[in-house]
Amino acid sequence: MSGAILSTHGLIARYGDFQALYGIDFEIDAGEAVALIGANGAGKSTFLRALMGLLPVAAGMVRMEGTPIGGTATDRMVQMGVAIVPEGRRLFAGMSVEDNLRVAMDQAERLGRKGGWSLQRLHDLFPILKEKARTPVQSLSGGQQQMVSIGRALLCQPKLLLCDEISLGLAPKVIREIYAALPEVRAQGTSIILVEQDVGLAKQASDRLYCLLEGRVTLTGPSAEVTRDAISQAYFGGSHAVV
Ligand SMILES: Nc1ncnc2c1ncn2[C@@H]1O[C@H](COP(=O)(O)OP(=O)(O)OP(=O)(O)O)[C@@H](O)[C@H]1O
């Protein structure tokens, strides 16, 4: 019996006739950070969408603490403790930072989710969110918007946080600031699945990684142990270098 907080078993996902995932076996334990790497179009976002109930998936293909939950509606996934920081952030434009965060707090309350994250706690993690509390989110920098997006997910009090390319398009200094917050999230006992294009960052921030290529897992192992060569092979299915 696996002690995984979440696992997938031969997970298949399709967009109409197009098959994007071909039987993904995956697991993540409580408090673990697992990175998902792979080239554009490998299926990383699709994998997160399938977990989040945004694509039709057979129940037994996804298990949460052993219970089949594949295809469960997104709201119910949030209720069970899974939250996503989506690619492109998808904040509520026209609303302030604090109002964006309050939407998540209201959602958590409505769904009966309790946990250690509060506005105060979030302000300790990302002080700029306090300074900019009244600012409309569209006036923030990309990095600040990403902090709001992460904050919104954390205020859903997740046991498992799904992060879809949270470094995309951000300056190195801002990326460091955002990634520096992840150990604090894990210290709460929250597991993290990290979809990340930057292989170095993915390795640093995770305990284990999976590499996807054209909808299949081509490599998995402890992040500190997988070599650049192995990643290169898995990433491209050939002998390209990863820089
Ligand atoms: N809504 C959609 N309809 C049809 N095909 C899609 C859709 N979204 C993604 N795909 C296809 O599914 C495959 C996997 O895409 P996905 O977005 O999961 O890849 P990814 O690894 O997250 O890459 P990226 O870094 O570009 O987001 C690709 O071939 C993509 O073209």
UniProtKB/TrEMBL annotation:
Keywords, comma-separated and alphabetical: Amino-acid transport, ATP-binding, Nucleotide-binding, Transport
PROSITE patterns linked: ABC_TRANSPORTER_1 (PS00211), ABC_TRANSPORTER_2 (PS50893)
GO molecular function, one term: ATP hydrolysis activity
Transmembrane segments: none
Coiled-coil segments on the chain, per record: none
Protein name from the UniProt record: ABC transporter ATP-binding protein
The UniProt record lists the keyword Transport: yes
Originating species: Cereibacter changlensis JA139
Family (UniProt): Belongs to the ABC transporter superfamily.
Domain ABC transporter: 6-239
Alphabetized SMART domains for the sequence: AAA
Biological processes per GO annotation: L-amino acid transport
One protein family per Pfam: ABC_tran
